[in-house]
Write a structure and sequence with these properties.
single chain; 138 residues; mainly alpha; 5 helices; flat
């Protein structure tokens, strides 16, 4: 019984995976600065942004919560769905119609807010239907 792991336990490679990801990020920053002659501020900024993304990914996979899953579904709605709605707005000619009838700035504001807000609501709706469970989550 002592050799059997619980169903929710992590695989043996879980901790080395995160350590390897962090070390590879640091190594690629050093290589970029020393060998590829990338400016120091870009190297530090890129490594910091990568660490931020790794931290978010670790938090999502290790400490999943209902609130975090809801945020992920809303971001899913904003990013691909909202962008797709924006593309439809541009292709359909509604954007040009708005520009002609209400002016440039109101049209600009509508074009860059309404599709993304609708996408956020669609993402939240999808999440609610799935009970905010992420795919491949335990």
């Amino acid at each position: 019984m002592s050799g059997v792991k619980a169903e929710g336990s992590k695989p043996w490679w879980w901790k080395p995976l995160w350590i390897a990801v962090l070390l590879i990020t640091i190594a690629s920053g050093v290589v970029g600065y020393l060998l590829l002659h990338v400016p120091l501020e870009r190297t530090v900024g890129g490594v910091a942004l990568t660490f931020l993304c790794i931290g978010i990914a670790y938090y999502i996979r290790v400490r999943p919560s209902m609130k975090m899953n809801r945020v992920i579904y809303i971001l899913f709605g904003i990013t691909p769905i909202g962008f797709g709605l924006w593309i439809l707005l541009v292709i359909s000619g509604i954007g040009r119609f708005l520009t002609t009838h209400v002016g440039n700035w109101p049209s600009f504001i509508v074009a860059f807010t309404v599709p993304y807000i609708i996408g956020a609501f669609i993402g939240d709706w999808i999440g609610r239907r799935r009970n905010y469970r992420l795919p491949l989550s335990p």
